[in-house]
Amino acid sequence: MSEEVKKFKITIDGQTAEVFPGTSILEAARQIGGKSVPPAMCYYSKLETSGGRCRTCLVEVSKGSEADPRPMPKLVASCRTNVMDGMEVKNLTSDKAQEGRKAVTEFLLVNHPLDCPICDQAGECHLQDLGYEHGVEGTRTEFERNTYEADDLGPNIKLNMNRCILCARCVLTANQLTETREHGILFRGDHAEISTYLNKALDNDYIGNIIDVCPVGALTDKTARFASRVWFTSPMNATCKCEKCSGKAVLWMKGDEIVRVTARKDQWGEVEEFICDTCRFDRKELKFWNIEGPRHIDRHSVISLNHYEKPKDELRVLDNPMAKEISEKDEK
Ligand code: SF4
Ligand code: FES
């Protein structure tokens, strides 16, 4: 008979959840939902060993656990810190965490060009969101930014290293999803960059998924680059008969034209099911697809502003009975 595992209780910004031991603070926050969920630029729940690189998910642990209630002395990366029973965490309610995130945003933007007006990722870029929420008005650095020429990574993918934040998601995706990995992070520290080995081309099947996991506009689809601003397109759920992947994709349409094909992403901006390169790059005609209907865009993005309902960005308590109780008490 299997023994019942005792769940751990965690409180984040006053909302409580019960999670299995081994759950990270970030995943627990996602279970609660709403605005208290920390942003994540490198963690990706579908990729093993992701996280711990960007520090955007920093939170304050004001109570370590029931057994040891001392607060943690420094902000912690919520994607890499596991929940302890009775832990209390502050995200939105912590000035320290907000200040920390602001500093991380400034750091991520030290070399990143502010080229949103010409970047294909604009409108669906996590760094752009972070910049709006926590960015400072001016730069405090005087040195020249690291600059690189845009590079072709194989027939369908363009690398704009100036925009890369070295989150390593693309490297993990290539490692864990394709048969051979031909790119990685070369050099160290300030010299670190994404590059292929000895000018190899990235043309494994499924390699196109590195475009979807990239949180910024460093990796773009050459078959769709500069074709349209994303907010002028209509995302449609569509399926095709594919012998390699599930064939479930999103078609980004302009009238009857398919501008771009991507995988479907969940509310955290993570791919639900990775798609093959044939669906992504070669099926740009309607004859291949069955269109199911408009795609709901969950994130607070300009895409959903133009096409669908207003973003629901109030503090949501979802279906968490404990969180509901607390918020009802607060309302009284
Ligand atoms: S290219 Fe994109 S996914 Fe790859 S490390 Fe840079 S930011 Fe991350
Ligand atoms: S998401 Fe946690 S460190 Fe990047």
Automatic annotation (TrEMBL):
Cofactor(s) it depends on: [2Fe-2S] cluster; [4Fe-4S] cluster
UniProt main location, coarse: membrane
Pfam families the UniProt entry points to: Fer2_4, Fer4_Nqo3, NADH-G_4Fe-4S_3
GO cellular component: membrane
Keyword entries, A-Z: 2Fe-2S, 4Fe-4S, Iron, Iron-sulfur, Membrane, Metal-binding, NAD, Translocase
Localization, UniProt: Membrane
Example of a GO MF term: metal ion binding
Domain 4Fe-4S His(Cys)3-ligated-type as annotated: residue spans: 96-135
Keyword RNA-binding: no
Presence of the UniProt keyword Translocase in the record: yes
UniProt domain 2Fe-2S ferredoxin-type: residue ranges: 6-95
InterPro entries associated with the record: 2Fe-2S_ferredoxin-like_sf, 2Fe-2S_ferredoxin-type, NADH_UbQ_OxRdtase_ferredoxin, NADH_UbQ_OxRdtase_Gsu_4Fe4S-bd, Prok_molybdopt-oxidoreductase
Family according to the record: Belongs to the complex I 75 kDa subunit family.
PANTHER family named in the record: NADH-QUINONE OXIDOREDUCTASE SUBUNIT G (PTHR43105:SF10), RESPIRATORY NITRATE REDUCTASE (PTHR43105)
Identification of the protein by name: NADH dehydrogenase
Gene source species: Chryseobacterium piperi
